[in-house]
Design a protein that fits this description.
The structure holds 2 protein chains of 2 kinds.
Chain A (H helix, E strand, L loop, with lengths): L3 H9 L12 H11 L4 H20 L6 H10 L1 H15 L7 H17 L4 H25 L4 H19 L4 E2 L3 H8 L2 E4 L2 E3 L1 H19 L1 H11 L1 H6 L4 H27 L1 E2 L7 H11 L11 H21 L5 H25 L1
Antiparallel strand pairs in A: 1-4, 2-3
Chain B lengths: L1 H9 L3 H17 L7 E3 L2 E3 L1 H24 L7 H18 L6 H29 L3 H20 L4 E2 L3 H8 L1 E2 L2 E2 H18 L3 H10 L1 H6 L4 H27 L1 E2 L8 H11 L11 H21 L6 H16 L1 H14 L1 H8 L1
Antiparallel strand pairs in B: 1-2, 3-6, 4-5
The chains are: A mainly alpha, B mainly alpha.
């Protein structure tokens, strides 16, 4: 991230006049990067991540290892995919509350279909299609009927959670060989480090998302809608289509996250992933995406998930802290980042 | 007659009330004794009383939420505030030497309410002074709140044995469940305060345009503090009722998803999330629709866990029916059918 942000920042700063000619250009530029609403929060998150990692390394001898870092990806693979999808939605100024329930629903569909002997090659694409269609319906509801994103995705959340119970009320375990293989396989990276196949999928998702958001017309339109939907419309951008598609993307990502979650837990359970939507939103906010839309990076959201993950890891290493401290920490962090964003954006305007 | 029909059709309350009537009719068909209310031991019993009693906590929160939404805000933290107030009250009652005395219970309730007021002020501070979007400002407390409740209960489910406390949740006074009485009092207070004074109009003004209302001399900041604090107060009272009903404080599950139900009640009742206008009667109808729906699912004999699918269906239906696109379509359809009715409505 830190390499990407400074590169991209200068483009946005042309209106900022040089206030003092005597000051070295480098200091000026660094300050501009830090105080811009675009890259400032991301940099703060990156610094925070490194700081927390360093603190962990000082406190616990085994902490400062490559495997601890890689495990952040292994353990939070599904959350990263969710956060990536959520980034698209939030960039347009919307929100998707249904992602946690859709994760649980995809897990239930996978578990029940595999149990009745379907092939994984059919099940996984089917899940992705179902969740994308659900996203499409939500998007249409928001666009055509002008229902607020909050309410429309809330209805989708109820629907998905309810359908989980319709499928089964109990946990269904998965014994299908392909899924088990994907769950237990470790890909060695040398030096005793290893990752799971899920991490590879996650990296592909991140790469595709970065490409779509930063290097395609569609991505520019997403930012434009977040910056001002009406102006986007007046500029002749395909606002309607884009607004619907971001919810399809979020639905697709939720489905994929559900599949990854199933690799991780090897079961489907109707109550799983409750509150995950909040974690995803928190990760996106901590990653520097403005909730009003228009500013943010996919990689920022990934960094946000890593920060949440490392807090969890620290609490696990600490051993004496109870797990509910995680929630308090996440809440506190969220607050800090929101205030930071507020300060940064108000200074620019 | 035509005018009357047209006016009913165009009323904001038309669809929610129609939905409620449909639900009641389904119930009466499935269960003929649905509407009957009997008196046992001087207490009222019946399905309707059950609906009112079980719906009371949600209604109480929805009342506070209505005022918050009228200012173009939203409060996601009410569920967490429920959990915190329940946890505080139960831990005080458990810690006292005489859990059954009224003084202990009164202290516990008072402390829980005061803490909720502080939490409400905190939300109000974030929204009005720092100027954070309400959905995010309250998300902070929603995320951290259950953790705080867990700290108070130390991760345990606190079970209390205190008859006066239990009465808040499941007791009767004058034959009516106490929870229903509390909800009625809060509804009356909110309605009188905001509709018999200028307060309601000022709240709506803030919702329409905070900056313009501030320049017109409305103290937007104070009003925002007031509505968030009132909402937290409502949440605390609802949390106490829920906790007292179970006689146990469960930091994880007390008031789980109640914020969503409350927001749904408000939206079904015709209050727009965009703020600027609200209807407390609509919220009452909305809360009744949701609670009746839950009861219907039980009486019709569908597995209760499928309730969420029905909730999704009802929410979607009401939202789509109330949406501008539908309203416009109905308007066109009506104009084509009976041009005169449309003229009368317009005049």
């Amino acid at each position: 991230m830190s390499t990407l942000a400074p590169e991209r920042a200068p483009r946005s700063e042309q209106p900022a006049p040089r206030r003092s000619a005597s000051r070295p250009a480098l200091v000026e530029r660094v300050r501009d990067v830090f105080t811009s609403p675009k890259s400032g929060p991301v940099l703060v998150t990156a610094i925070l991540f490194v700081a927390v990692f360093a603190v962990g390394g000082v406190r616990y001898p085994a902490f400062l290892s490559g495997q601890v870092f890689l495990n952040l990806f292994v353990d939070n693979a599904y959350l990263i995919v969710l956060a990536v999808g959520m980034t698209f939605v939030i960039l347009t100024g919307g929100i998707d509350l249904s992602v946690g329930a859709v994760v649980a629903l995809s897990g239930m569909i996978a578990a029940s279909l595999l149990q009745s002997g379907w092939s994984p090659g059919v099940v996984i694409p089917l899940i992705l299609v179902i969740t994308s269609v659900l996203g499409l319906l939500v998007g249409l509801m928001i666009h055509v009927f002008e229902v607020q994103p909050f309410i429309a995705t809330l209805a989708a959340m109820f629907l998905a959670r309810g359908l989980c119970y319709v499928i089964s009320q109990n946990s269904i375990s998965i014994t299908e060989p392909t899924f088990v293989a994907l769950a237990v396989t470790r890909i060695p990276l040398g030096g005793g480090l290893s990752i799971t196949p899920s991490v590879v999928i996650v990296l592909v998702v991140i790469a595709v998302a970065v490409w779509v958001l930063h290097f395609t017309r569609f991505g520019r339109t997403v930012y434009a809608i977040g910056g001002g939907e009406h102006s986007g419309m007046l500029m002749g951008l395909p606002v309607a289509r884009t607004k619907v598609i971001v919810y399809v993307i979020s639905g697709f990502c939720s489905g994929l996250a559900g599949v990854l979650f199933t690799f991780y837990t090897l079961s489907g359970y109707p109550l799983s992933a409750i509150g995950t939507e909040l974690d995803a939103i928190a990760a996106v906010v901590i990653g520097g995406t403005l909730l009003t839309g228009g500013f943010g990076f996919v990689l920022g959201s990934v960094l946000g998930v890593l920060v949440l993950g490392i807090i969890q890891t620290i609490i696990t290493f600490e051993g004496t802290l109870s797990s509910w401290w995680t929630r308090i920490f996440i809440g506190g962090l969220l607050l800090v980042f929101i205030i930071l964003q507020k300060v940064l954006t108000s200074r620019r305007r | 007659m035509k005018t009357l029909v047209a006016r009913a059709f165009s009323s904001r309350l038309f669809w929610p009330v129609a939905m409620l009537v449909v639900l009641v009719v389904i119930n009466v068909i499935a269960f003929p004794g649905f509407l009957s209310i009997t008196v046992k031991d001087g207490h009222l019993f019946g399905s309707i009383i059950d609906i009112l009693r079980n719906g009371a906590p949600m209604l109480i929160i929805a009342i506070g939420m209505t005022l918050v939404i009228a200012t173009r805000g939203i409060d996601l933290s009410v569920g967490a505030v429920c959990a915190i107030s329940g946890a505080v009250a139960c831990s005080i009652i458990l810690g006292s030497s005489d859990p059954g005395s009224i003084t202990t219970v009164a202290t516990a309730v008072a402390v829980a309410v005061v803490i909720a007021l502080v939490l409400g002020l905190w939300n109000g501070f974030l929204v009005s002074v720092i100027g954070i979007q309400p959905i995010i400002a309250t998300l902070v407390l929603m995320t951290a709140g259950r953790g705080i409740a867990m700290l108070i209960t130390e991760g345990q489910i606190l079970t209390v044995n205190s008859p006066p406390f239990k009465a808040i949740g499941s007791g009767f006074a004058l034959g009516v469940p106490i929870a229903v009485l509390i909800a009625a009092v809060i509804f009356a207070v909110a309605a009188l305060l905001t509709r018999r004074t200028a307060l309601g109009m000022l709240i709506e003004a803030v919702g329409i345009n905070p900056e313009a209302s501030r320049q017109a001399g409305v103290r937007a900041r104070g009003l925002l503090f007031a509505v968030y604090t009132f909402c937290a107060l409502c949440a605390a009272i609802a949390g106490l009722i829920l906790t007292a009903n179970q006689t146990a404080a469960d930091a994880n599950n007390t008031g789980l998803f109640i914020e969503l139900d409350a927001i749904l009640a408000v939206v079904i009742g015709g209050t727009s999330l965009a703020g600027g206008r609200y209807s407390l009667v609509g919220t009452l109808v909305g809360a009744l629709v949701i609670q009746t729906l839950v009861t219907t699912v039980y009486t019709v004999g569908i597995s209760p866990i499928v309730t969420m699918v029905f909730k999704a269906a009802v929410v979607t239906a009401v939202c789509l029916l109330q949406s501008p696109a539908t309203t416009a379509a109905i308007g066109r359809w009506r104009r084509r059918l009976a041009p005169r009715v449309a003229v009368e409505v317009a005049s």
